[in-house]
Amino acid sequence: MEASLYRMVRLIRRFEERCVELVRSGDIIGGIHPYIGQEAIAAGVCAALRFDDIITSTHRGHGHVLAKGADPIRMLAELCGKVTGLNRGRGGSMHAADFSKGIFGANGIVGAGGAIATGAAWAFLRQGGGDKVAVSFFGDGAVSQGVLLEAMNLAALWKVPVLFVCENNGYATTLTVSESVAGTICGRASAFGIPSSTVDGMDAAVVFEAASAAVESARRGEGPAFLECLTYRFDAHHTWEHKARVRYRPAEEEVSGRLRDPVEIAGGRLDPAERESIDEAIEALLDEAVAFATTSPAPDPSTALDYLYGSAVLP
Amino acid sequence: MARLSYLKALQRALIDEMSRDESVFVLGEDIRVGVNNVTTGLLAKFGPQRVLDTPLSEQGFTSFATGAALAGMRPVIEFQIPSLLFLVFEQIANQAHKFSLMTGGQARVPVTYFVPGSGSKTGWAGQHSDHPYGLFAHVGVKTVVPATPADAYGLFVSAIREDDPVVIFAPAGSLGVRDDVDLETLSAVPLGVGTIHRPGSDVTVVAVGHHVQTALAVADQLEGEISVEVWDPRSLYPFDWSGLAESVNRTGRLVVIDDSNRHCGIAGEILATAAEQMRLTAPPRRVTRPSGAVLPFALALDLACQPDAEQLVTAVREVAKD
Ligand SMILES: Cc1ncc(C[n+]2csc(CCOP(=O)(O)OP(=O)(O)O)c2C)c(N)n1
Ligand SMILES: [Mg+2]
């Protein structure tokens, strides 16, 4: 488990660093919201999931999509807007999805995923599909969205097997948690009678433990659970900040926030030789991904409205 | 003369109105830092009671503004991205907009909603690329789409002074526009009054928002072949029908360029009204996004869904031939 957690944390880190380079080179248009610093959460939670469980993700979704099992090569092709991408180049960073892996999509609207995950998990119950669960990832900013709170109420009322995972990185863009959240984040879960806990989101093993317990209780039919993971975003809110250079985080905080690095925490538990071989395999994979993404064909403009309707018919 | 950018014009309008009227205040996401470059520096100037950074609670703070307006304030809300208007459609269309009539004229709701960067920012994909001005015009909410720095200033000022809700769309494609402007002459631009950006005699091109620039370029390109008049409604609701009629009755030919979805869009409304009320000598045309379009991510697909100069040239040539 230690090696596989490290592998995922490191893969996400290096994937994101490659993406930032591809934004700079213009291969990725529109920029990305880098997940750098928060990797342990996606890695830890998804390690507690089965192949047939589902997740919903956010605008900062690359880590969740990779950790739930999407192919990094096709993911990168998606970010480069290629027909070979997960969404055939139609979705991009904020909409990357792979339904074959239970990834119901990154989402550009803050707070939108919680209700979708709740509905999906409820449907699994109704369909008698065994003990599948859904996980919704969201940031601290989302806990002020009505739709998320409405979803938590439904989930608790109807005992839905859904896990709400809040990634508290201290900021919603430039706004601090203390300026945006009255009461506490976990207090919202308590208000609906949903059991919750707050854990160290920098340590993938800690996140894995906590998520496993929550997922198991959901599988046993005990209803929803809520996990607050404390973390820090190491990079910009969005890559446009690399040019705009807006200032809103104290410099000392940016230094102290990066002291505990999820890659080092997970990597420190491995034997150095093992760590090195994992790192090498990841570099080789990402080299392949970049080559594939940059050389794959772009979609034909005449197909711009393909897939607009599920019926495949344009009215 | 000074070089004035569209963004600075919006900022200037906000500062002028906040200085003039104590009841004006601004709220929205990341507006202290000013990630959209309109509200930058306002916190230092006006203090935290008049510049409120909100949590991500759009439905809550939109109706919060309605309440503050009913109690005598003039709130201005910045929406960071155009899709947030879908989220708060109930709060604007079904609450703020309806109070006046439903209360038999007892209540006024002077709230201004502004969206710096509506439409496609290229690469922001499905949920961040809409241009939903037609929806607001359809339900009767006052809706303006300035195309130039002077109009951005003037329409923003008028929107804030208006006793009704007004949505002001600042297209992403207009934010970089700069003009030489005599700052002394900046003034309120009344709602519901269009303007001719370039006179012409053969074809009237009605251009909405950033496509004013597209239309001006096309008019240049066709000079000597077809004389194009570029007419900008500036307000989509109320709409300057008599101003448009004056132009169309002269040229007899009409093309509309509108960066929103075709079916039930504002371009269709303009064509219908022209057909009913104006002297057209040829069937009119429109250049729009496709019906029902959701903007795909890949660059070529995104661009394929947006109206462009080439399509406008074709449409203008077609109506000129008919
Ligand atoms: C409903 C909604 N409001 C505003 C935005 C613009 N926006 C995108 S991300 C973001 C901040 C989100 O903060 P948080 O939920 O804490 O996630 P983080 O970015 O920190 O990962 C904002 C305001 C949006 N996409 N959706
Ligand atoms: Mg956050």
UniProtKB/TrEMBL annotation, chain A:
Keywords: Oxidoreductase, Thiamine pyrophosphate
One Pfam entry name: E1_dh
Required cofactor names: thiamine diphosphate
Domain Dehydrogenase E1 component: 8-301
UniProt keyword Ion transport present: no
GO molecular function per UniProt: magnesium ion binding; pyruvate dehydrogenase (acetyl-transferring) activity
InterPro entries: DH_E1, PDH_E1_Alpha_Subunit, THDP-binding
Coiled coil: none
GO biological process, one term: pyruvate decarboxylation to acetyl-CoA
Superkingdom of this protein's organism: Bacteria
Keyword Oxidoreductase carried by entry: yes
PANTHER family: PYRUVATE DEHYDROGENASE E1 COMPONENT SUBUNIT ALPHA, PYRUVATE DEHYDROGENASE E1 COMPONENT, ALPHA SUBUNIT BACTERIAL AND ORGANELLAR
Name this protein carries in UniProt: Acetoin:2,6-dichlorophenolindophenol oxidoreductase subunit alpha
Organism annotation: Rhizocola hellebori
Automatic annotation (TrEMBL), chain B:
Domain of life of the organism encoding this protein: Bacteria
Every Transketolase-like pyrimidine-binding domain range: 4-177
Keyword field: Oxidoreductase, Pyruvate, Thiamine pyrophosphate
Alphabetized SMART domains for the sequence: Transket_pyr
Cofactor(s) essential for the protein: thiamine diphosphate
One of the record's GO molecular function terms: magnesium ion binding
Record protein name field: Pyruvate dehydrogenase subunit beta
Species: Rhizocola hellebori
Taxonomic lineage of the native organism: Bacteria, Bacillati, Actinomycetota, Actinomycetes, Micromonosporales
